[in-house]
Amino acid sequence: MHSSSTRILSSHIGSLPRPQHILQRIYAHQADNVPFDERYWEMVSVAVDDVVERQKAIAIDIVSDGE
After folding, report:
1. Could you state, in chain order, the average pLDDT of each consecutive group of 10 residues for the chain (67 residues)?
2. Beta-carbon neighbour count of residue 55 at 10 Å?
3. For the chain, how are helix, strand and coil distributed in percent, rounded to 5?
4. Domain ranges of the chain
């Protein structure tokens, strides 16, 4: 657990917006039972890395994968 005696640590609560290309895959999966393939999981991994880096760049103390 992170703690600080000199300032209030920042984080966020809740789901972060998903990239449109990932949402399209999710909608196709739900509508037509299209399986999540290896490419989908690669896109998710890249999106998670991106959102973690964006949080670090704006000095969020406790980063999240967006969920």
Report:
1. 72 85 95 93 95 90 80
2. 20
3. 50, 0, 50
4. 20-57
